[in-house]
Design goal:
286 residues; 14% strand; binds S-adenosylmethionine; Rossmann fold
């Protein structure tokens, strides 16, 4: 991550949402309200100007993103599918009794801000590195605070999740919770991912769920996003946010079980590969 600067990849995800909004079938790709909220947040947080936003919404920009799909087929639209998957899972888990939502590495995601008024009995929490959480908080303040949305700046590389949440009076470790790690785990070293899953189990109550996306590894254990893997990894590295962690799908169930989670394909709803990633839900084992 670039020192003191908002995450480039978080900005990229949000601008891709805006660009997807320029496609003729946008309303079939994106959740209602997602596009407008993302545009407002990018402007209000000061990470994108009016001119850049207008440019992002052009057909030319859509063509550029679609052209780059040669490297990672389906990746442009997959970002929209990822948001739909996470929101669907969060709504499903709220229906099943969850009262806390925690989004890790939230970036410029707007789910908490959009869902907070719809579910006033649910508390929404977001954690991100201070360099990204700071502009996000500025944007949310301008768009309208939510009483049940808590933005927590914390570098999870330096401070444990358990300690970060213990310092927040509103978080309850015995509550049925949903933890979302969307487009995050690939940026963490392997031992940090293991530690994060264990900590997620420790900070959440019975029947909690974790929703996450990950990059698959091939049978030799190496990260695998197809024939251009080497180039993709190099591009990620030069942006300052390298991909570090991946997992062989066949090993996921046993990996999660050791850390207190049960892989729950029944809840998956997003089975199969979407661009570079796989989408997954796991339930806390009591
Ligand atoms: C690819 S972005 C995804 C953003 C968001 N989840 C989404 O999909 O729209 C990865 C996010 O993880 C955050 N992140 C990476 N390392 C982090 C760390 N050590 N502590 C807290 N957040 C981190 C970045 O700041 C960034 O917002």
């Amino acid at each position: 991550m670039r020192e003191g600067k908002p995450s480039k990849t978080a900005l990229k995800v949000a601008t891709i949402i805006v660009a997807l909004g320029a496609k003729p079938d946008a309303d079939q790709i994106l959740n209602p309200g997602l596009l407008e909220a993302t545009e407002d947040l990018l402007l209000a947080s000061g990470v994108l100007g009016e001119k850049a936003l207008r440019w992002t919404k052009t057909q030319r920009m859509v063509s550029i993103y679609e052209a780059f799909d040669w490297m990672l087929p389906g990746q442009f639209q997959a970002i929209g599918e990822r948001k739909v998957f996470c929101e669907h899972q969060v709504r499903d888990a709220i229906s099943a009794g969850a009262t806390q939502i925690l989004v890790l590495g939230a970036g410029f995601d707007t789910m908490g801000w959009r869902l907070a008024p719809e579910f006033p009995h649910v508390s929404f929490f977001e954690i991100d590195h201070p360099a990204t959480a700071r502009p996000k908080a500025k944007g949310i303040a301008a768009m309208g605070q939510r009483d049940n949305l808590f933005l927590i700046p914390s570098d999870l590389g330096n401070r444990k999740l358990i300690d970060t949440l213990a310092a927040n009076n509103s978080w309850r470790s015995d509550a049925q919770s949903i933890i979302v790690a969307e487009g995050l785990l690939m940026y963490l070293p392997g031992d940090a991912v293991v530690d994060l899953f264990s900590q997620c189990a420790a900070v959440s109550g019975a029947k909690s769920r974790i929703i996450f996306t990950y990059i698959p590894a091939s049978t030799d254990g190496r990260l695998d996003v197809g024939k251009w893997t080497g180039l993709v990894l190099w591009l990620q590295k030069i942006t300052g946010e390298p991909w570090l962690w991946s997992m062989q799908p066949k090993n996921l169930t046993s990996f999660l079980a050791e850390l207190g989670w049960k892989n729950d394909p029944v809840l998956e709803g997003g089975a199969g590969r979407h661009g570079a990633e796989l989408y997954t839900v796991a339930t806390k084992e009591i």
